Give the backbone structure.
Amino acid sequence: MREPMMAGNWKMYKDPLEARELALEVVGRVGGVSGVNIVLCPPFVSLTAVAEAIEGSNISLGAQDVFWATEGAYTGEVSPKMLTACGCQYVIVGHSERRGRFGTWPGDWPRELLGVFGDNDVTVNWKARSALAADLTPIVCVGETIEERKAGATDAVVREQVTAALAGMSAEEVACVVFAYEPVWAIGTGEVCDAEEANRVLGLIRQLLAERVGDRAATMQILYGGSVKPDNIDGLMAQPEIDGGLVGGASLKADDFAALVEAALRSAGR
Ligand code: PGA
């Protein structure tokens, strides 16, 4: 039986004071809920504020990115060890925005900025492995763009991203990875992926995991992300492969996020 998970990706929102406020609101609503892995992923600078706000609750802390070295001359980067020291148990790795695969390109940015955050299949693999080595659970994001979907390349893209993310990992390590299927065209657009189609792609991911870890793939949590909202969560959670959500916009409102957690809880034991 897999425990459902609801992870809030706050992206570049909430400075430390705002983050503390939102985290306290979330604690007030769902801090005592057990049976769902609830994870909040604020920006780096707000990790400590959120760690303090969720202390003693059932909510866990995650970061939105990580660098693979432990320390060194890497100006601007943050190591796995620094994240665990801030109280993190999770880290998002390879979000499409960090891979430079934006659903819509910010209008006034020149195309030379494409790939500005620099993540690719190789850095995602290094980041995920370094996270595991520091006892952080990587939430690895994969998913196709609208062009790739229209070209019928969804499965090939997902297969390639999943395989690359897991390169060089032992079966024990693979079994600790949480994947999030996030079709790029569904992120921040309000256009959620059809629940049955999301379930199908998650099934493909689980099949790829089974090739590495056998039966243990059935115990691994896999998430869907992309315009998850209170009004579509029940349909998603009703799908057998979908263990929860990686949520952007709706995680910034305590009421909406609490509604998502409650839906995940209702789905447990389905
Ligand atoms: P969204 O973002 O829920 O705002 O679509 C999801 C994500 O980017 O993880």
About this structure: DSSP finds ten helices and eight strands in the chain. The longest helix spans residues 195-213. Strands lie at 5-9, 37-41, 59-63, 88-93, 137-142, 178-181, 222-225, 244-247. The longest strand covers residues 88-93.
